[in-house]
Amino acid sequence: MIADVLDGRAAVLPVPADDPHQSAALATALRAGEDIDDAVGAVLSTSGTTGTPKGALLTAAALRAGAEATHERLGGPGQWLLALPAHHVAGFQVLVRSVVAGTRPVAVPASFEPEALASAIAGMEPGRRYASLVAVQLDKALGDVAATRALASLDAVLIGGGPMPAGVAEKASAAGISVIRTYGMSETAGGCVYDGVPLRGVEVRIAEDGRIELGGPTVAVGYRNPVTPDPFAEPGWFRTDDIGVLDAGVLRVLGRADDAISTGGLTVLPGMVEAALATHPAVAECAVFGVADARLGQRVAAAVVTTPESSVTLAQLRSHVTETLPSSAAPRQLHLVDELPRLGIGKIDRRELVRRFGESD
């Protein structure tokens, strides 16, 4: 079927095979079976902040361009490990890259147990071998010796889907795992910026308001369910909801514009606060979000998973953050949690954190 898509003979709407309710909802919302432009090869669901599936319209040319540019950056075509749901863009692109490379992907069960990961990699063929994971999967694999060694045997491990927990990249590097951080989304046929550097043909620019804009052959032609304002208004470009900076041509993503916290008339980006918190020895994982405040408009709140047998106070974290950031960025509210709520393939669910703790004093 993927070969038919890439040859322009079919258009597909990937849905989760193990969730009939969600599959039916996506099929209805994205009008499966109805007419679509002949150039479109795949409609990949993406909801953004509205919760309504928009459906990125990706041409066969965009999908192929992303796969070919990825192989070029990594050193050549190879066999891929499928460890992410195929209805998400990262998993779907593993299938596309496999067809383009003429190889068969090796799948890991959805539970992603380290033993199964090691076994799947052991079953891969000789030659160049790659995997595409999210940070929480890499973190889990690093807790198992066999899985860690298996990942280290691969030529590259792409990591996307959001920020990486503190220390994970360092542990992976020390174990000999070739980690590449990717940035992209359904609207760009998946990751199109690797370690801050755009793939061949991809263009990156920063708009006046700080938003990242991506252009080039991997960009979708629009949404199945268009929105206003249209992020595809300029042909060949996609205006993201992310804030970033370019330093000597290398992109650094600072956070999402709609996650920004307005506190006391100042703007705080959660990602920057999370990066500062993550350097505290007692912080294993953290998420920063804004909650309503009668005086400040919003106040900065943090949910923290501590390292084993560690404890930390709000005062200690505030002091730690102000070593590198303005005092306005320091959390005014702390919640110690056993785990962080996540969405889809590992992204932090900030809305759930606001729902849980938004009324806290």
UniProtKB/TrEMBL annotation:
Residues 42-209 form the AMP-dependent synthetase/ligase domain. Keywords: Ligase. GO terms for molecular function: acid-thiol ligase activity. InterPro entries: AMP-bd_C, AMP-bd_C_sf, AMP-dep_synth/lig_dom, ANL_N_sf, ATP-dep_AMP-bd_enzyme. Residues 273-347 form the AMP-binding enzyme C-terminal domain. It comes from the Bacteria. This is Acyl-CoA synthetase (AMP-forming)/AMP-acid ligase II.
